[in-house]
Write a structure and sequence with these properties.
1 helix, alpha+beta, single chain, 16% helix, 80 residues
Amino acid sequence: MDINTIGQFKPNQAANPAIGIAGRLEYVEEDKVELIVDYSEDNVGLKKAIRELKKVSVCLYVTFWSTPPSQVFLTQLVYP
């Protein structure tokens, strides 16, 4: 899932930012990508997903959050 949103960041006083002004909170449009990968002990699917995101991302860093399978709750949606 790709979600267009507004992100924020604040370059520190020593920064020379490409966008914005050092020391001032900035807001920029960004895309949030959510995906589901198969679980494995060696995280092969997660590692592959991160590699692919880095190939297409304009960001220097790809941030991710992972939930262990034991903490995932699936809800079945039923429509009439």
